[in-house]
Amino acid sequence: MKLLVCGGAGFIGSNFVRQRVREHGDEVVVLDKLTYAGRRENLADLEDEVGFSFFHGAIEDADAAADAMQGCEAVVNFAAETHVDRSIAEPDAFVKTHVVGTFVLLEAARERGMRYLQVSTDEVYGSIDEGSFTETSPLAPSSPYSATKAGADLLVASYHHTYGMQTSICRGSNNYGPYQYPEKLIPLMVLNAMHGDSLPVYGDGMQVRNWIFVEDFARGIGFTLDHGEPGEVYNVGGPDECPNIEVIERILEFTGASRDLIEHVTDRPGHDVRYSLSSDKIRALGWEPRVRFAEGLERTVSWYRDNEDWWKPTRSGDYREYYERQYGRKLA
Ligand code: NAD
Ligand code: DAU
Predict the structure, then answer these.
(1) Segment (H or E) for 67
(2) Is 3.40.50.880 the CATH classification of the domain at 2-175+211-236?
(3) For the chain, N or C: smaller number of CB within 10 Å?
(4) pTM of the prediction?
(5) What is the mean pLDDT of each run of 10 residues along the chain (332 residues)?
């Protein structure tokens, strides 16, 4: 199959592209705007593979989308602004990429009769105190990030309903693993712990996330592409839930850093307390997660320990500026 993978230079997209090229023998064209989170280095090991090509461009640019799409049978759209804190500070890009960008891709795919898979998130359901969200749970997003992701999902569903387009939506829980930009909880805490920098815990740290190792989510997306029913939504949730403070304590154990680095800071506005997905629907098709949290976290810590060349640039300018803006003081 020849796939257009939008946002393929990011964390999950690059893991997905690697699987599809190496394990499925697919031809893959990546279209990526290369924001701060998208990096060619994430795909460096694939650059010489037959069947892999890269287009630098934005999904909201109809010409770029049309050029990149040539000869492809399906679009898999990962392209997004993905950090909730950034969406609270500066929502503009979230609206443009998620709503306008998704619309442009849908139109281009519809014109060419292509299959379309939207990569989405459990955050569109909002927070849940007990039990787990199913695919029919109502959408109740809390942040500009999740509201614009929900808007994109609704557009995708409407293209199936109205035009009969062959669409799918995959909603994943919190991913972690190699190549994740160190603004997200796990890589940020791993690198801060390795450097003896403080570990900023929002509020009491008792918020719960449903962790999934990135390779398992990437396989779930591929699984949906290969076996999913058109027009359907599939939740792809991890096997374990864990409160943030416990995630940080485990990272302290793996890195040998001191508990004194933990610093409770002002909570995120509108912070969702708990996410939890029921993945029974995709499990019934035969997918299941392979990596439990304890193993995946250890692998992740090792990957960051072994890949200084990858994360070093993220700790020099950008991240320090971001930290100062976020917490109103300089990194130690
Ligand atoms: P990421 O931030 O690591 O990567 C996003 C990629 O999209 C980058 O390569 C970036 O350059 C590209 N991009 C951004 N705007 C673009 C635009 N306008 N045009 C083209 N490319 C653009 O994100 P990620 O964590 O890999 O997330 C990928 C997808 O998975 C997103 O749609 C996200 O909502 C979804 N998701 C993420 C998680 C998670 O825990 N990270 C969980 C569930 C779902
Ligand atoms: O649930 C899926 C979503 O997971 C994805 O759709 C998003 O793209 C992704 O960013 C992630 O969103 P979260 O807000 O859950 O992830 P984040 O890593 O930002 O935060 C995880 C939890 O850790 C959350 O409760 C906030 C908390 N946190 C985060 C940071 C960065 C802290 O306590 N301190 C921090 O410094």
Answers:
(1) helix 62-69
(2) no
(3) C
(4) 0.96
(5) 98 98 97 93 94 97 98 98 96 97 98 98 98 98 98 98 98 98 97 96 98 98 98 98 98 98 96 98 97 98 96 72 54 50
